[in-house]
Design goal:
about 425 residues; alpha/beta; Rossmann fold; pyruvate-formate lyase- activating enzyme; OB fold (Dihydrolipoamide Acetyltransferase, E2P); five-stranded mixed beta barrel; four-stranded parallel sheet; about 35% helix
Length: about 425
């Protein structure tokens, strides 16, 4: 989501003749797009502000704007604590950044814009084309969340669930296709809660599946509670919908899930997995896990390990619980940090082994790869297969934008390496 927002912010500032620069200490304006999910992300914002101050110690001060979720959650306090900041702008107000920059150019006033008017934001963004010309692109279809998981700040920083109209999304998708995009990832804090009028996420996927020039469809991030039967059925009927689902579970313990207010049980989660497998036999899964949640016992952790073993997620994103101010979980007593660190290490080692076993199973197998770009090395191309695995191959021909059968020869922790079986394009 942050990458998509950053791209749109870049498009916005271009309308007032600002261009990106790699010469950090020559910038006229800094825009720090932030995340507030974990404590370390918030700490990084202040670190980045310190870095900017250091770079411009003996130079004219640049305009410094903080946007995103940290700005939304801590905007007033940030302006009090850090005089170097010129403006804080919430994630639903970043369409105002060009106007704020122009004001900051001629005024010493400081600005705080943390409105929740997401409708106004998308109305403004739809006035110009998305200049993103990548082979694969993100598009936000939904923002906010109404689930109120006890550990999460998103409902407070992004506001209630809001979905864009199907018509608006289709227009943006077609513009991206004109710019060379072949793969779309639909984004939302709770993307499968998408609902605009009578249209649900499944309706959008069916519509996208019929658009000429679009080869692949993905979506993230989902909530188990919104994995409805019509959406599960779409995996069977829509060939452009990729067989990989990122479905955060957070814990394998029903006790912890209840404490988190996740609104689903382990059994319900596993039922979703099985129903999806029945519709799409080759489907794979990835997930998020919070380790060391308040009151997590050894048995709760064992339950989480057992879930990891049972599903065999091809990617597992795991973090130690980070208390966020203003959330219900913040009132609970945290477990000892050393215990949490030990559990995280055990979890990640097992997760890595499962991932390694999965990658080993791909050796000598063929997979359809959408090649996104040429690398710096001579005749090396980067692409992703249907399961979002990163793959590098050698080719004398320019294969950017093509879907080609590729045989996997080797792998490391992050990347698969292969050879093109033939350079004839494949159907998605």
């Amino acid at each position: 989501m942050n990458e998509y927002d950053s791209n749109r912010i870049l498009d916005l500032v271009k309308t007032i003749n600002y261009e990106p620069t790699k010469k950090i200490n020559y910038a006229d304006c800094y825009v720090l797009n932030t995340c507030h999910i974990r404590e370390k992300a918030t700490e990084k914002v202040y670190h980045d502000i310190g870095r900017v101050k250091k770079e411009f110690r003996n130079k004219k001060k640049p305009i410094l704007i903080i946007t995103g979720c940290v700005a939304q959650a801590e905007g007033d306090e940030m302006l009090k604590q850090e005089k170097y900041i010129d403006a804080v702008i919430g994630p639903q107000s970043y369409h105002e950044i060009p106007k704020i920059i122009k004001k900051a150019e001629v005024s010493k006033n400081r600005f705080n814009n943390t409105d929740f008017d997401v409708i106004e934001k998308f109305d403004k963004l739809n006035l110009f084309r998305n200049s993103n010309s990548k082979i694969s692109s993100f598009i936000t279809i939904q923002e906010g969340c109404d689930k109120f998981c006890n550990f999460c700040v998103v409902p407070y920083t992004r506001g209630p669930e809001y979905s864009r109209s199907l018509e608006e999304i289709i227009i943006e998708v077609k513009q991206l296709i004109e710019n060379g995009v072949k793969e779309i990832t639909l984004l939302g804090q709770n993307v499968n809660a998408y609902k605009h009028g009578k249209n649900k996420l499944s309706d959008l996927i069916y519509t996208l599946n019929n658009i000429k020039g679009l080869e692949r469809i993905k979506f993230t991030t989902s909530h188990p509670k919104d994995m409805t039967e019509d959406l599960i059925e779409a995996y069977k009927n829509c060939h452009k919908l990729m067989p990989l689902l990122h479905l955060p579970v957070q814990s394998g313990s029903n006790k912890i899930l209840k404490s988190m207010n996740r609104k689903h049980s382990v059994e319900e989660y596993l039922s979703i997995i099985e129903r999806l497998k029945n519709k799409k036999t080759n489907i794979k899964f990835s997930s998020d896990f919070i380790i060391g949640y308040p009151n997590e016992t050894e048995q709760d952790f064992v339950d989480t390990i057992n879930l990891l073993k049972k599903v065999k997620f091809i990617n597992s994103y795991s973090f130690i619980y980070s208390a966020r101010p203003g959330t219900p979980s913040n009132r609970l007593s945290s477990i000892e940090k050393e215990i949490a660190k030990k559990r995280l290490k055990i979890f990640q080692e097992l997760s890595d082994e499962i991932k390694k076993d999965y990658r080993r199973s791909l050796l000598n197998a063929e997979t359809k790869v959408l090649f996104e770009n040429k690398l710096g090395q001579k005749d090396r191309y980067f692409g992703r297969d249907e399961f979002s695995n990163s793959i590098i191959v050698y080719s004398r021909e320019n294969i950017t934008g093509k879907i080609i059968n590729t045989k996997i020869n080797s792998f490391n922790s992050n990347t698969l390496f292969g050879e093109i079986v033939n350079e004839k394009e494949c159907a998605a």
